[in-house]
Amino acid sequence: MASTLRPYLTCIRNTLDAAMCLQNFPCQEVERHNKPEIELKSSPELLLNPVLICRNESEKCLIETSINSLRISLKVKQADELENILTKKFLRFLSMRAEAFQVLRRKPVQGYDISFLITNYHCEEMQKHKLIDFIVQFMEDIDKEISELKMSVNTRGRLVATEFLKQFI
Amino acid sequence: MACIERASPALNQILLKLYSAEKPVEIDHHLYEFGSAEYHILCQACEPRVAYLSISTPPLCPGNLTSNKLSSYTIEMIKRLCPGVVEIAEARREGYQLTLRLNLTKIPRGNDYVKVIKEISTVHSVILSSQLKEILWNFNSDDAIKGMHKPIKLAYNPREPFFVIRQPPRIITVFPIRFAEKSDVIISTAFFQELVDVGSSDRYAKAPPCSWSAIPPPELIGEAFEDLSTNGGFVSFDISAHHVDGKRLDKTVWNLLNFNAYVRFHVKTTKGFIQRRMRKRLENLVEVLHHTESEHDNEQITRHYGCSCTKRLSVKSSKYNILKQRWGNLGRKLKRIHFRVKIRGFGRFRQRWLRLPKFSSSRGYTKLD
């Protein structure tokens, strides 16, 4: 499984590198408004083709680009029910605190676990390659954190079970 | 196990307060505790060193109508609790099963008094343990139907009954597990799998073998549907003669009575642990992003300011928000100060002076070389 991780992340990095060419574009529908076109999807000429990168059936990444914004949606692997609830809890926890991350979306796109929304303003404020590094690092950290959480929960359960059974001896 | 103690903490505290009071204290308290236990403590000024403790507890076996009165074995066990200090009153208080007369003068001075009072506070656990012991000992052969002994339903906590099935030479206890939330069910299931795994190891061969199943075990065939409908499965312990031998009987009985509470406590603490860990991880992830931003700021950049009062900030960090909030609080406090001397124009000056200037990225830009 580890052998497919590197090519998966490299593919995502290269796609983001190509897709993150954003520029300021005022809204065509409403005067003096400036909205991320990827969220509105009102003008098809401003949208690029979405790219779906799948590592396997349970892990995928959807990159949707428009002229002034980019949306990245991630589906994280969940091997069993415990990983499922831990992933849901953790990603919901992060999404609720999206203002701390600036580029994180409060609600993930349907069918995915977490979503990022990057606008031209973010690209002006931050360096593009650093932003891409952050996204890729975030993906690795999430996987690592879910695995560690699962292991910690099982270790705690084992310790508690040991203490309970010790009382009978 | 710190979370589920035999001694009632509220009763312990009240008795300690009574004992260490310098002046005569009048007390008339009603207490309600986990397991539907009810206490009444009465101490009158005319008899300052004597307290009357009344206890009422629902029967452990709900189907047994005669169990409202305490059995002679239970009374005997209660009498063994601090014999000099505790006496069973002849007339019990109305609405209670038992009234004890506590002679506080007979409690030894020195550090032992804490131990004695704690022992008195375990009266509820003594009643329950003795009731369960009697149920396990007084096996009625009429209960055997076609070689299968009828399960006895016990309810320490009314919403969490469990079953005891006597199959000589062992006793099987079955705990139906129910949780309100799905995440609790999953955490508890992971715990039960670890419990079964640890129990089957060589190191804990002397502990009662335990098993978990999602469906009701065959021993519970014929029981009521509401008792068998669960979302957390069934946990079974096989208690053999070794586990109820001598001093171990007390421990085994108390552990079985509190198994449900133990599991719930573990699930609650695990959820707290997950929350703490997520918070810590969030700080680490945000720190990475801010570290990325600070690397950008460290580069040599020529700044062009669109307006003298605005300055471009690349990151609206949480530190900025905290600083803004503190400034706002200070400003509000200063505004509330009532100045006796009125100076013309000072109000407007104070308003401008106390306002934090806004920094907007749309007005300024940064020229990169």
Fold blueprint:
The complex is a heterodimer of chains A (169) and B (369).
Chain A (H helix, E strand, L loop, with lengths): L1 H18 L17 H4 L10 E4 L5 E6 L3 E7 L5 H16 L17 E6 H6 L2 H39 L3
Antiparallel strand pairs in A: 1-2, 2-3, 3-4
Helix pairs in contact in A: 1-5, 3-5
Chain B lengths: L8 H11 L7 E7 L3 E7 L6 E7 L15 H8 L6 E3 L9 E6 L8 H9 L2 H15 L6 E2 L2 E2 L2 E6 L2 E8 L2 E7 L5 H18 L10 E4 L11 H4 L5 E6 L8 H10 L1 H40 L3 E3 L13 H19 L9 H8 L11 E3 L2
Antiparallel strand pairs in B: 1-2, 2-3, 3-5, 4-5, 6-7, 8-9, 9-10, 10-12, 11-12, 13-14
What oligomeric state do these chains adopt?
heterodimer
Strands ordered across the widest β-sheet of chain A: 1-2-3-4
Percentage of residues in DSSP E strands of chain A: 5-15%
Find the count of extended strands of chain A (DSSP E, 2+ residues): 4
Q: Biggest protein-protein interface?
A: A-B, 43 and 47 residues
How much helical structure, as a percent, in the residues of chain A? 40-55%
Which class do the helix and strand fractions of chain B yield? alpha+beta
Q: In order across it, which strands form the biggest sheet of chain B? A: 1-2-3-5-4
What characteristic shape of chain B results from the CA principal axes? flat
Q: What is the rounded Rg of chain B? A: 33 Å
The average pLDDT score of chain B comes to 77
Q: What sequence of helices (H) and strands (E) makes up the elements of chain A?
A: HHEEEHEHH
Helix content of chain B: 25-40%
Main β-sheet of chain A: number of strands, strand sense, barrel status?
Answer: 4 strands, antiparallel
Continuous helix count of chain B: 10
- Number of DSSP helices of chain A? 5
Structural class designation of chain A: alpha+beta
Strand content of chain B: 15-25%
What gap, in angstroms, lies between the N and C termini of chain A? 43 Å
User: What overall form of chain A do the CA principal axes indicate?
Assistant: elongated
User: What distance separates the N and C termini of chain B?
Assistant: 67 Å
